[in-house]
């Protein structure tokens, strides 16, 4: 939490870090510090935050999904804001595999840890049990009146009557889930921020796929639009890179010896 606050105050600069703001906040007057930040992504170059991803208590469970050789692929610290009245603090129901150009899905897992008490009032996770046994579905931006945050894609077609399970959690509680599991989170109806930290892991010998022409084609285009400016600033020609290059660049080995 302290490191998060340092980053928000711009006391430290983390190479490769992406800082995101809520779409409703971005459209309003400038909001300083922690209140302006809704998510940190790609903190693999920060030893303090990345320490979470290397915790033996986490990795020992991750290895039951991925196998012995593990890579941390995608990192997030989520600072879900009090909803500004536009319902933009919601996260639509989605499948994480929608964003990933690697397979097999059964060798990918997310570790999601509550940094404080999480419940339905401040927007806990909600899942559709059993959907991890299905297939990757078409995603798109939901047509929400108040707007939708960048890259907050949702499953286009699913059974609205499907059973849902909400996951209230205490500080430090951790859930592991499959990348095909349909999940999301509700609005934060409290006056405080709801913090969680997560990492997606994968087997070190996963296979990268070309998503061009697939239902993930739009994700690839949007990702390169987002990173274009950063890459050019570093003297890198984005047209020379693939999605595989981007993911391999930010992945980190976190394997532990199996007993």
TrEMBL record:
Cofactor(s) named in the record: Fe cation; L-ascorbate
One GO cellular component, as annotated: peroxisome
InterPro entries on file: PhyH, Phytyl_CoA_dOase-like
Source organism superkingdom: Eukaryota
Keyword Oxidoreductase: yes
Statement: the UniProt record of this protein carries the keyword Transmembrane: no
GO terms of molecular function: L-ascorbic acid binding; metal ion binding; phytanoyl-CoA dioxygenase activity
Listed GO biological process terms: fatty acid alpha-oxidation
Pathway annotation from the record: Lipid metabolism; fatty acid metabolism
Keywords assigned by UniProt, alphabetized: Dioxygenase, Iron, Metal-binding, Oxidoreductase, Vitamin C
Documented EC number(s): 1.14.11.18
Enzymatic class: oxidoreductase
Family: Belongs to the PhyH family.
PANTHER family: PHYTANOYL-COA ALPHA-HYDROXYLASE (PTHR21308), PHYTANOYL-COA DIOXYGENASE, PEROXISOMAL (PTHR21308:SF1)
Official protein name in the record: phytanoyl-CoA dioxygenase
């Amino acid at each position: 939490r302290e490191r998060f606050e340092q980053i928000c105050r711009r006391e430290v600069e983390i190479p490769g870090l992406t800082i995101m703001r809520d779409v409703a906040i971005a459209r309003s007057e400038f909001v300083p510090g922690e209140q302006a930040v809704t998510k940190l992504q790609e903190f693999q170059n920060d030893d303090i935050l990345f320490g979470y991803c290397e915790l033996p208590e986490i990795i020992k469970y991750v290895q039951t999904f991925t196998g012995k050789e593990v890579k941390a692929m995608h990192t997030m610290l989520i600072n879900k804001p009090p909803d500004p009245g536009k319902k933009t603090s919601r996260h639509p129901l989605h499948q994480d595999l929608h964003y990933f150009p690697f397979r097999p899905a059964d060798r990918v897992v997310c570790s999601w840890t509550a940094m404080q008490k999480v419940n339905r009032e401040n927007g806990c996770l909600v899942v559709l049990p059993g959907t991890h046994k299905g297939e990757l579905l078409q995603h798109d931006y939901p047509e929400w009146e108040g707007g939708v945050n960048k890259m907050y894609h949702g499953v286009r077609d699913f059974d609205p009557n499907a059973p849902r399970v909400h996951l209230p959690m205490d500080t430090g509680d951790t859930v592991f889930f499959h990348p095909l599991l349909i999940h999301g989170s509700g609005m934060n109806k409290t006056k405080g921020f709801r913090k969680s930290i997560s990492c997606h892991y994968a087997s070190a010998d996963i296979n990268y796929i070309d998503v061009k022409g697939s239902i993930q084609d739009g994700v690839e285009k949007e990702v390169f639009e987002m990173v274009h400016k950063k890459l050019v600033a570093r003297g890198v020609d984005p047209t020379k890179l693939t999605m595989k290059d981007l993911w391999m660049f930010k992945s980190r080995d976190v394997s532990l010896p199996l007993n």
